[in-house]
Amino acid sequence: MLLFLNIDCVLAPPADALGPSFQGHTGVRRLEAVLHAWPQLRLVITSDRRYRMTLEHFRGFFSEELRHRVVAVTRLYAVDGKKAGRSREDEVLEFLGGFERGAANWLVLDRYEGDYIAHAERLVLCSTLTVEVVAALLAALRRCAHADPISADLALWTVGSGRASARHPTPMRVLTKPQVPPLSHSRAWLRGARP
Question: CA-CA distance, 94 to 61, in Å (whole number)?
Fold first, then answer.
Protein backbone atom coordinates (compact mmCIF):
# COMPACT_ATOMS: atom_id res chain seq x y z
CA MET A 1 0.00 0.00 0.00
CA LEU A 2 1.34 3.42 -0.94
CA LEU A 3 0.84 6.71 0.88
CA PHE A 4 1.64 9.75 -1.26
CA LEU A 5 2.91 12.22 1.29
CA ASN A 6 3.25 15.97 1.31
CA ILE A 7 5.94 15.80 3.97
CA ASP A 8 5.38 19.46 4.90
CA CYS A 9 2.20 18.33 6.67
CA VAL A 10 4.27 16.03 8.87
CA LEU A 11 7.16 18.39 9.52
CA ALA A 12 4.99 21.33 10.64
CA PRO A 13 4.27 21.36 14.39
CA PRO A 14 0.79 19.89 14.93
CA ALA A 15 -1.72 22.43 16.20
CA ASP A 16 -2.80 20.09 19.01
CA ALA A 17 0.78 19.54 20.24
CA LEU A 18 1.88 23.14 20.77
CA GLY A 19 2.38 24.25 24.32
CA PRO A 20 4.89 23.94 27.15
CA SER A 21 5.41 20.20 26.62
CA PHE A 22 5.87 20.49 22.82
CA GLN A 23 8.59 18.25 21.40
CA GLY A 24 10.20 18.87 18.02
CA HIS A 25 9.25 16.06 15.68
CA THR A 26 5.76 15.25 16.95
CA GLY A 27 4.27 14.96 13.45
CA VAL A 28 7.03 12.61 12.31
CA ARG A 29 6.64 10.44 15.42
CA ARG A 30 2.89 10.22 14.84
CA LEU A 31 3.43 9.11 11.25
CA GLU A 32 6.00 6.58 12.48
CA ALA A 33 3.34 5.15 14.78
CA VAL A 34 1.10 4.66 11.74
CA LEU A 35 3.99 2.99 9.89
CA HIS A 36 4.49 0.61 12.83
CA ALA A 37 0.78 -0.20 12.78
CA TRP A 38 0.77 -0.79 9.01
CA PRO A 39 3.93 -2.74 8.06
CA GLN A 40 2.86 -2.92 4.41
CA LEU A 41 2.61 0.89 4.07
CA ARG A 42 5.26 2.65 1.98
CA LEU A 43 5.74 6.42 1.51
CA VAL A 44 6.17 8.30 -1.76
CA ILE A 45 7.05 11.99 -1.33
CA THR A 46 5.00 14.48 -3.37
CA SER A 47 6.15 17.66 -1.63
CA ASP A 48 7.86 20.37 -3.67
CA ARG A 49 10.81 19.85 -1.33
CA ARG A 50 11.73 16.98 -3.65
CA TYR A 51 13.32 19.61 -5.92
CA ARG A 52 15.74 20.61 -3.14
CA MET A 53 16.24 17.36 -1.26
CA THR A 54 17.22 13.80 -2.12
CA LEU A 55 15.42 10.64 -1.15
CA GLU A 56 18.07 10.11 1.54
CA HIS A 57 17.24 13.51 3.04
CA PHE A 58 13.58 12.51 3.32
CA ARG A 59 14.52 9.18 4.86
CA GLY A 60 16.65 11.05 7.41
CA PHE A 61 13.52 12.55 9.02
CA PHE A 62 12.50 9.07 10.20
CA SER A 63 14.00 6.70 12.74
CA GLU A 64 16.56 4.21 11.46
CA GLU A 65 14.21 1.20 11.39
CA LEU A 66 11.64 3.03 9.22
CA ARG A 67 13.83 4.85 6.71
CA HIS A 68 13.52 2.09 4.12
CA ARG A 69 9.74 2.71 4.07
CA VAL A 70 10.30 6.04 2.27
CA VAL A 71 10.64 4.48 -1.17
CA ALA A 72 10.44 7.21 -3.81
CA VAL A 73 9.53 10.71 -4.84
CA THR A 74 7.14 11.61 -7.62
CA ARG A 75 8.62 12.78 -10.90
CA LEU A 76 10.96 15.75 -10.92
CA TYR A 77 9.95 18.08 -13.73
CA ALA A 78 12.38 20.34 -15.57
CA VAL A 79 12.64 23.84 -14.20
CA ASP A 80 11.54 25.20 -17.57
CA GLY A 81 7.89 24.97 -16.57
CA LYS A 82 6.80 21.53 -17.83
CA LYS A 83 5.04 21.06 -14.52
CA ALA A 84 2.79 24.06 -15.20
CA GLY A 85 -0.82 23.03 -15.16
CA ARG A 86 -0.16 19.66 -13.53
CA SER A 87 -1.84 18.92 -10.23
CA ARG A 88 -0.43 16.66 -7.56
CA GLU A 89 -3.12 14.20 -8.55
CA ASP A 90 -1.68 14.13 -12.09
CA GLU A 91 1.78 13.47 -10.65
CA VAL A 92 0.49 10.62 -8.49
CA LEU A 93 -1.37 9.03 -11.40
CA GLU A 94 1.74 9.32 -13.59
CA PHE A 95 3.77 7.61 -10.86
CA LEU A 96 1.20 4.82 -10.60
CA GLY A 97 1.11 4.34 -14.37
CA GLY A 98 3.42 1.33 -14.25
CA PHE A 99 1.65 -0.50 -11.43
CA GLU A 100 -1.70 -1.74 -12.67
CA ARG A 101 -2.43 -4.24 -9.87
CA GLY A 102 -1.13 -2.16 -6.97
CA ALA A 103 -2.51 1.13 -8.25
CA ALA A 104 -5.91 0.49 -6.67
CA ASN A 105 -4.34 0.56 -3.23
CA TRP A 106 -3.06 4.05 -2.46
CA LEU A 107 -3.89 7.10 -0.37
CA VAL A 108 -2.74 10.70 -0.22
CA LEU A 109 -1.86 12.82 2.82
CA ASP A 110 -1.81 16.41 1.61
CA ARG A 111 -3.03 19.93 2.33
CA TYR A 112 -4.03 20.74 -1.26
CA GLU A 113 -7.64 19.62 -1.46
CA GLY A 114 -8.19 21.28 -4.85
CA ASP A 115 -5.43 19.19 -6.46
CA TYR A 116 -7.37 15.94 -6.03
CA ILE A 117 -10.59 16.06 -8.01
CA ALA A 118 -11.03 12.63 -9.63
CA HIS A 119 -9.66 10.77 -6.59
CA ALA A 120 -10.84 12.97 -3.71
CA GLU A 121 -11.90 9.85 -1.79
CA ARG A 122 -8.23 8.87 -1.50
CA LEU A 123 -7.21 12.20 0.08
CA VAL A 124 -6.73 12.60 3.82
CA LEU A 125 -6.65 16.37 4.19
CA CYS A 126 -3.86 17.53 6.47
CA SER A 127 -2.28 20.89 7.19
CA THR A 128 -0.54 19.45 10.27
CA LEU A 129 -0.57 15.91 11.62
CA THR A 130 -3.00 16.30 14.51
CA VAL A 131 -4.50 13.38 16.43
CA GLU A 132 -7.70 13.84 14.40
CA VAL A 133 -5.79 13.61 11.12
CA VAL A 134 -4.01 10.45 12.30
CA ALA A 135 -7.40 8.93 13.20
CA ALA A 136 -8.73 9.87 9.74
CA LEU A 137 -5.63 8.32 8.12
CA LEU A 138 -6.05 5.07 10.08
CA ALA A 139 -9.73 4.92 9.09
CA ALA A 140 -8.82 5.51 5.43
CA LEU A 141 -6.17 2.77 5.60
CA ARG A 142 -8.73 0.34 6.98
CA ARG A 143 -11.23 1.26 4.25
CA CYS A 144 -8.59 0.91 1.56
CA ALA A 145 -7.40 -2.46 2.86
CA HIS A 146 -10.92 -3.85 3.10
CA ALA A 147 -12.14 -2.41 -0.19
CA ASP A 148 -9.55 -4.25 -2.27
CA PRO A 149 -8.11 -7.25 -0.40
CA ILE A 150 -6.03 -8.43 -3.37
CA SER A 151 -4.08 -5.23 -3.82
CA ALA A 152 -4.13 -4.58 -0.06
CA ASP A 153 -1.70 -7.47 0.17
CA LEU A 154 0.46 -6.34 -2.73
CA ALA A 155 2.56 -3.40 -1.87
CA LEU A 156 5.83 -3.91 -0.10
CA TRP A 157 7.94 -1.59 -2.19
CA THR A 158 11.60 -0.76 -2.35
CA VAL A 159 13.78 1.46 -4.48
CA GLY A 160 16.78 -0.24 -6.02
CA SER A 161 19.20 2.67 -6.30
CA GLY A 162 17.95 4.75 -3.36
CA ARG A 163 18.31 7.97 -5.37
CA ALA A 164 15.62 10.62 -5.66
CA SER A 165 15.51 10.07 -9.41
CA ALA A 166 14.58 6.42 -8.91
CA ARG A 167 10.87 7.07 -8.75
CA HIS A 168 9.52 3.66 -9.77
CA PRO A 169 9.61 1.12 -6.94
CA THR A 170 9.78 -2.60 -7.49
CA PRO A 171 7.48 -5.06 -5.68
CA MET A 172 9.46 -7.11 -3.15
CA ARG A 173 7.00 -9.71 -1.89
CA VAL A 174 3.32 -10.32 -1.47
CA LEU A 175 1.69 -10.39 1.94
CA THR A 176 -0.88 -13.08 2.52
CA LYS A 177 -3.38 -10.92 4.39
CA PRO A 178 -3.70 -7.28 5.39
CA GLN A 179 -2.43 -6.45 8.85
CA VAL A 180 -5.10 -4.19 10.28
CA PRO A 181 -4.22 -2.91 13.75
CA PRO A 182 -6.93 -3.22 16.39
CA LEU A 183 -8.57 0.06 17.37
CA SER A 184 -7.21 -0.17 20.93
CA HIS A 185 -3.64 -0.24 19.57
CA SER A 186 -4.39 2.66 17.24
CA ARG A 187 -5.43 4.85 20.15
CA ALA A 188 -2.15 4.10 21.96
CA TRP A 189 -0.19 5.01 18.84
CA LEU A 190 -2.14 8.24 18.51
CA ARG A 191 -1.02 9.23 21.99
CA GLY A 192 2.58 8.65 20.89
CA ALA A 193 3.20 5.32 22.62
CA ARG A 194 5.84 3.34 20.81
CA PRO A 195 5.34 -0.39 20.21
Answer: 26
Query: How far, in Å, CA of 88 to CA of 94, rounded?
Result: 10
CA distance 179 to 38: 7
Residue 182 CA to residue 186 CA, distance in Å, equals 6
Tell me the whole-structure pTM to 2 decimals: 0.72
Nearest alpha-carbon partner for 26 in 180, 184, 136, 133: 133
Pick from 22-31, 69-78, 98-107, 125-134: least confident: 98-107
Question: Element (H or E) spanning 9, and its range?
Answer: helix 7-11
Please check whether residue 28 is in contact with residue 90, taking contact to mean a CB–CB distance below 8 angstroms.
Answer: no
Alpha helices, DSSP H only, in 38-179? 55-59, 88-96, 131-147, 149-152
SS3 state at 149 = helix
Amino acid 63 reads S
CB contact at 8 A, 45 and 159: no
In this predicted model, what pLDDT tens digit does every residue of 95-148 receive, in sequence order?
998 665 445 689 999 999 999 999 999 999 999 999 999 999 999 999 988 764
CA 56 vs. chain centroid, Å, equals 16
